[in-house]
Amino acid sequence: MQKIPLKDTSVSDGKIYVRLIKGRFQTLRRLISWPMLTAFFLLCWLRIDDVPVLMFSFSTHRILLFGLELSWYDFQLLGGLLIAGATLMFFLSMLAGRVWCGFACPQSVWTWIFIRIEDVVEGKANRRAKQDKQPIKQAHVYRRLLKHALWLIVSVWTALTFTGYFVDLYSLLSQIIHFELPIYLVGWLMTVSAFTYLNAGIVREKICLHACPYSRFQSVMLDQHSKVVSYDVARGEPRVSKRQLPQASRQGDCVDCTLCVQVCPVGIDIRQGLQAPCINCGACIDACDSVMKKLSKPLGLVRFASESELEGQRYQLLRPRLIGYFSVMSIAFATVAYGFTQTTDLLVEFNRERGAMYSIMGNGDVCNFYKVKAEAFNIEAKTMQMRVGTSAYRIYGDSDIALKPGDAYWRSVRLCTNAPAAGKTSVEMVFTAGDASLKKTTTFFAPRH
C-alpha cells in the first residue's frame, strides 16, 4: 500500500505572523473548540449535592465522574479510555489526516486564543510585521506589555482550572486568598502557567513539528485515499499573478496571492505538497476560497482531497486498513463501556490480628480478633453494616462503620461463639453499604477437644 511522503522543509525559522480569516472551516473549528473550552472552564466548578461533577481526587482516592464514583482500583478504565481515544485518532487520521490537531487539539485551541489576543491588542498580522521591523515606540511597548499580561492571565486561569480537576477548587481559591497555599501547589501552578504561556504564546508551531510525535508517524497511517488539505496542482499551475495576467499565454487558477501562507498557523505553503507540520485546520482552504469567489472561479483549488482524487481516480471510502482501525476502535470503546459496569462499589479488608489464634473469655466464649478496613465508592453510602453469615457467632466492636471518603483506617473487632467447633471453621462475613454487598470468608480457630 502506498505511503504518502511528507515534506519537512517548509517551516520558516523566523516568527510567523498569522493572519486571521473567516470561512466555513474556521467556523467549524470554533463550533468544535468553543464547547470544549466551555466544558473545560466550567465543569470543575459544578457541584451536585456538594459533590464535584468531575474530579480526580488525590485526597479521597476517588474519581468522580458525572455521578459515578470510581476507586483507584478502577484507574485502568482511564487507561482504557486513552487507548480507545488513540484508536479513534488513528481511524480519523487515515480517514482525514490530522483533523484532531487542527480542530480540537488543546495546543491548537490555546494557540488560536493567544493569536486572537495578539490580533486585538497589537493589530493585524501585516501591521505587527511592520512594527517589528521599525524602531520600538512607547505605544508599541504598552501594547506588547498588555498582550503579554493578557497571555499570563489566560495561562494562570488555565492552570487554576486544570488543578481544579485534582484539588477542590473552592478550597484552593480560599487558600490563595488567605496566602495559605502549600509550596507544592505554588510550584505546580507556576509550572502549568509557564507551560501554557510558552506553548501557546512563544513556541506555538514548534510544538506541532518538534515535540508532537503525531506529525512524524502520520505518514504511516495515511494512504492514497486519505483526505487531507491538498493543493490541486493540475488546476492551479502554472500560477500567474494578477500583474502578469495580460501577458500570460497560459495560466492556472492560482494567482500567487500567498494568502494561503499568511493564514497558516504553522507557516507552510500548502502548494509545496503535504508537509509534516500541516495540522489540517483548513485556514488555507478558507483563504483560497475567498480569493476564488472574488475572481469568479470555482472553489476548491485548495481543499480536503485524497491523492487518488487529485490524480483523477475514484475515491474509495471502504478499504481494509480503515475497516481494521474502525474494528479495533469499536472493540476498545466496547471494552471500556463494559468495564464501567464492573466497577468497585465496596472494598473491604478483613484480616486476623497477629498473636494468639484464639482467646477464651470468662463466660466461656471463644473469641478471635480481627482488623477491618472499608471503603465504599458510592456517594450515597454513609455507613457499612458488618454481620456474620450464621447466628452461632457474634461481633463485638463496631459492626456499623461510618464511611468517609479518603478516611479509611483499621478498626479492631472480636468474633466470638459459645459453641465453637473444634479446630478450624470457615465463617462467612457479610458487609453491606447502601446497595453494595460483599462477602468474605475467614477462618475461625477454636481449641481442639
From TrEMBL:
Name recorded for this polypeptide: 4Fe-4S dicluster domain protein
Organism: Marinomonas gallaica
Membrane spanning residue stretches: 31-48, 75-96, 149-167, 179-198, 322-340
Annotated Gene Ontology cellular component terms: plasma membrane
Gene Ontology terms, MF aspect: 4 iron, 4 sulfur cluster binding; metal ion binding
UniProt KW keywords: 4Fe-4S, Electron transport, Iron, Iron-sulfur, Membrane, Metal-binding, Transmembrane, Transmembrane helix, Transport
4Fe-4S ferredoxin-type domain location: 244-273
InterPro entries: 4Fe4S_Fe-S-bd, 4Fe4S_Fe_S_CS, Cyt_c_oxidase_cbb3_FixG, Electron_Trans/Redox, FixG_C, Ig-like_fold
PANTHER family in UniProt: FERREDOXIN-TYPE PROTEIN NAPH (PTHR30176:SF3)
SUPFAM superfamilies, sorted: 4Fe-4S ferredoxins
Any one Pfam family match given in the protein's UniProt record, by short name: FixG_C
